Amino acid sequence: MCSKVYFLDIQTFSGNFKLFENILLKEIKIDEKFNKNDIIGVKIHFGEKGNRAYIKPVYANWFCDFLKRKGYKPFLTDTNTLYKGMRSNSVDHLDNAFFNGFSYFPVIIADGLRGESYVKVEKELDILKEFYIGADIFYSDGLLFLTHFKGHELTGFGGSIKNMGMGCAAKRGKLVMHSNLTPSVDRDKCKGCFKCLKWCNVNSIKNVGGLAEIDKNICVGCGLCLEICDYKAINIDWQIESSIMQKKMAEYAKISVEKKPSVFVNFVMDISPVCDCYPYNKNPIAKDVGILFSDDPVALDRASFNLVCERTGYDPFKKTHPSVDSLIQLEHAEKIGLGTNEYELVQIT
Prior knowledge:
single chain, 349 residues, alpha/beta, Rossmann fold, Alpha-Beta Plaits, 2 domains, eight-stranded mixed β-sheet, 12 helices, globular, 4Fe-4S, metal ion binding, 4 iron, 4 sulfur cluster binding, iron-sulfur
């Protein structure tokens, strides 16, 4: 059975937000998914400071205002990153979000001050059986995903599945997806301040010869020490095979919306070659396509991918990242029951 994907073509879309409302009410039937006074997380990437390709705040404001007018309680949300930057702790993350214009509606960083606030979910899928979801996303009544569809250096493209899987995971979950190894200390960079030792929740970091050392038999891989270290002396092996990472990401995506009503919107515009996590962005790799809506994230990402390739005349994601098979995430997501690759494209005018 195919899923419906609703498409606003950038070539004909005049910016009439009434069309958004018609899709959400008449096609998606959002009133049948959410209940009055439900607290709805609007999951979005706020863009790293300096990046310009992220979804513009005017869109986020409209969706939050729509939800509020319908009697729901929306909040904008994301989780902290593993890497050092403006989104690795909630103080900097909020500062970054406000700087980039997301200041009209409540913003909550879902996994706490340093990524330590999560809910552990146990469910055995093909690869993983434990999942660590940002607590405030887990405890929300429903989710609306606003996703910038673009290229990605590890997954080929990043769409709703990535926004769900990587975006809803706390730091500990991100570490599981990005690496098969626990963190290690670069003894050449370590200054012996032992700030990491004081913050380690499981006492896996020891003073060995005046420098920090992580006991891999105790470490749970939460990633907190990566944020704590002021000298970038703690590292993980990022060179995980793309296919494994994509499958883990799809499994996290499934758990993030398990038994939770959700709606998905892809902004296939400003199609940058890499993630919005960078403090800059290069020229788009394809022309703007439009905005797509669905209640099936797999069908939505497949339709977005197909439209980009059709409009471009080739696969720009493969051209940009030739070593990555970006369709693995879609195939695995369908296999585990997240959605279907079969879709009917309904153009809205």
